[in-house]
What does this fold into?
Amino acid sequence: MKHLMDHLEKNGQAPWGTALVVGAGPGADLPVLRRLAFRRLILAEAHPRLAEDLHQRITPEAEEEIRHVAITPTPMGQATLHVLNNPQHSGIHAPRALLEQAPNLRVTHTLTVPAQSLAEIIQELQLDAEEPNLLVLDAPGAGVELLRSTPAHLLHAFSWVLLHGAAMDGLYENDIALSAAPPILHDLGFDLVQDDPEVIFPASAALLQRNAARIAVLERETHIASLQTELASAKADAERAAQDLHIRIETLQADTARLNTEHQTRIDALTQDRDQQAKTVAEQKAKLDALTQERDTLRTQAEEHKTQAG
It folds into this structure.
């Protein structure tokens, strides 16, 4: 770490803002960190004994603060810490190939410790992205995973990222080599400055710097992608609305045709009833006229017979 911190001291921009150190251990790197005179130094350590040792070494009056938490990729409140006989190799993931590379190491027990996601602690710190802030990730078996799971705009609060990790895959469960991190960070807007030549295999460390120009391009691309997604969604909504309207129109047309048919059927039935009733009336009138005529004829005949008889 000293080699990379020397580079920061020579090439960084003072005054420094906040340094967030994930996996601060017992505080062996405090003198190197203090050289840069950060305005605020936040030290996160999950191992209880290491956190206690660290507590004895900090200076709260100098804005040095300890967070006794495991930093996790996602919010979970608590995490299982796999404790090794060398506590600085303890982590939230179980060791795998590490035990083959270093046969003197072994898991002694597990602990349930408080946990906070990297995104949560960054949001909580309310960092000023205009300040030169530093993120140190020394989380055995989880460094690359922490980066991949944290939203880019939160990582952009840091001008520099000092990343500790493995030189090979599988030292810890689901862990990948640190060489996979620079491409990930490059896509997030960070450039690899240099590797640490002083780190001993199978460990590895790298220093990365925020690239404001690339971040601006990435943000524009993200904005364009968001607009395209919104446009596609709006188009899909419009197509669904048009389809729904078409279905409603067809339904209304079908209902109108059905009602017109029913109405015409009723009219035809009523017309038929009217014509039948008119026919019946005409027949009854004809019968009545015939009866009236017959009555008049009989009456006339009766009067004639009466006249003849008189």
